[in-house]
Amino acid sequence: MTKNINYLAEIDRLRKKKNAVILAHYYQTGDIQDIADSVGDSLALAQWAAKTTADIIVLCGVHFMGETAKILSPEKKVLIPDVAAGCSLADSCPADEFELFVKAHPGYQVISYVNTTAAVKALTDVVVTSTNARKIVDSFPPEAKLIFGPDRNLGNYINSVTGRQMLLWDGACHVHEQFSLEKILKLKEVYPEAEIIAHPECKRPILQIADFIGSTSALLKYTAQSAGTEFIVTTESGVIHEMRRQSPSKTFIPAPPNDSTCACNECSFMRLNTIEKLYLCLRNETPEITVDPSIRERAVRPILRMLELS
């Protein structure tokens, strides 16, 4: 660790000096969320990346989020504190395999979750986030043949609420796959008044016991507006930082994973980013996210279509 440095002060100085903006996902640690210029879910991060006037975008999240920012703002330098901050869901959908899957189903239009690589987005007709997935799927005619990838849990959930029969890629998020139904039910016994709130990337049995299902931003909004005072939060536990900030008098209990040694469920990739790495990233202007121009040209269209529909 770099010694004798006030990281928060230096980060603040460097972002002003370099006309940089720090965008952080709700799944980042609390100290990174607190120092960021904007904190949001995947949709909000994409929207901010598209409109910022900064020269440098520091994306405190995972690699595909940095790619999305670069696709939307190719003239800007896009940095990420730790280039190893990947995504299990994006990794579950290699572009070459997904292309073969799409080609094997002619006549289908392709809807890809934002949690994908730029190369997968380049194979896509429209990108969605968990916030806008239902709205965008509903924008297609009822008879449309649709492929949805890569998250099978989100795809199954959207199929269930829309009556669609989208063809699903078999991918999943390691965080949302790991929640323990048994342990959540035991938590409910301890906190009988607590509402179970869940992200639609969770498995169906988890969603079936949830009092509310929604995207990260929807979960935040729900907890802020609900008359309830206790919530079992079934998504990445980093979001609880913002929930507590918005509703300090309420109680938020992280839903546990199957791993018996853990009381909460964290994304190991998201947690690779640290305050020290954020400082070094701004100081050295590296690691930098780049996207091949030919891929960017094809990938930008489905993202812009999503932003228009949102």
What would you say this structure looks like, in words?
- The structure is a single chain.
- This protein is of the alpha/beta class.
- Helix content is 44%, strand content 15%.
- It has helices at residues 7-17, 30-35, 42-51, 63-72, 88-91, 95-103, 118-121, 133-138, 152-162, 174-177, 181-190, 204-209, 216-225, 240-246, 275-284, 293-309, and strands at residues 20-25, 38-40, 56-60, 77-79, 109-113, 126-128, 146-149, 167-168, 195-198, 212-213, 230-234, 251-254.
- Helix 4 (63-72) links the parallel strand 3 (56-60) and strand 4 (77-79).
- Helix 1 runs parallel beside helix 15, helix 3 (42-51) runs parallel beside helix 4 and helix 4 crosses helix 16.
- The longest helix is centred in the last third of the chain and has 17 residues, at 293-309.
- The radius of gyration is 19 Å and the shape is globular.
Radius of gyration: 19 Å
Oligomeric state as shown: single chain
Major sheet, described briefly?
4 strands, parallel
Shape: globular
How many DSSP helices? 16
Strand order of the largest sheet: 2-1-3-4
Kindly estimate the percentage of residues that lie in beta strands according to DSSP. Answer: 5-15%
